[in-house]
Amino acid sequence: MTAITPLNVEMAGMQLVGSAHLPEQAEQAVLMLHGFTGNRVEYTYFFFTLARVLAERGIAVFRFDFLGCGESDGAFAEVSVANQAAQTQHLLAYLAKNYPLYQRHLLGFSMGGLVALQTALADSALIRSLCLLAPAANLAQIVESVAASNPQVGAAGGVDFLGLEISAQFRQELAQLAPFSGLASLEVPALVVHGQADAAVPVEMGEQVAACLPCCQFEAWADADHTFARQADRQRLGQRIADFVLA
Question: Cα angle vertex 200, ends 196, 203, to 5°?
């Protein structure tokens, strides 16, 4: 039996809203980081499905909406990789304090993969392992493509994308971000899984990230897309992540 518990974590006077899956006698815990424009449930309940599979294997799961996303405080126009990495460090510290018996693992999907890498680079001692699903090393190109085909809003030059404002500051951050820089220094065990049919983030992006990490396993899955949007792929992915975490 797994209890799903609502969580609210304060950071600088703002609330990060989350959900915890807490199986009995769990020793390992995974903190999930969602992607760009996503939330703690993710596209067609992707994260919820993975969390349920992991919990069935006796692994605790924590899912949070980043600030400006989902139900958390803040505005989407304030989203940045650096800010989300700072939030992730804060959440890992919260887990260490409030769930000290768990070994902590970090999972990042798409933009969440970039955030997970930046978090690990800041302090790899915070986590036992790193799992990256379709890490969006090409996020700068994706955002610039979006900006080119959507109208600007506000005096600061933001872009209106599906009702969300992509800020000029975020675009500038991505333009200056070197997604592969420093990865060779990360000795933490890592797993990168990428779909070969990913139309948003080419599988070569995941392969390049994995090649930079010294302790990494890389898997390219035939026919899987960006969100692993088939039931068989998601079940297989949940089991693969569980095997990696429990190894």
Answer: 30
The DSSP output letter for 44 is G
The candidate with the shortest Cα–Cα distance to 245, out of 117, 104, 75, is 104
CB 111 within 8 A of CB 139: yes
Tokens read off for 124: 């790899």
Shortest CA distance to 65 belongs to which of 105, 97, 112? Answer: 112
pLDDT in tens, 163-215: 999 999 999 999 999 999 999 999 999 999 999 999 999 999 999 999 999 99
Write out the H or E segment, with its range, that includes residue 210.
Answer: helix 203-212
d(CA 39, CA 48): 11
Tell me the per-residue pLDDT of 218-246, one tens digit each, with 9 for 90 and over.
Answer: 999 999 999 999 999 999 999 999 999 99
Beta strands in 196-240 (DSSP E): 216-221
Q: Are 176 and 140 in contact (CB under 8 A)?
A: no
Residue listed under structure tokens 């792929």: 233
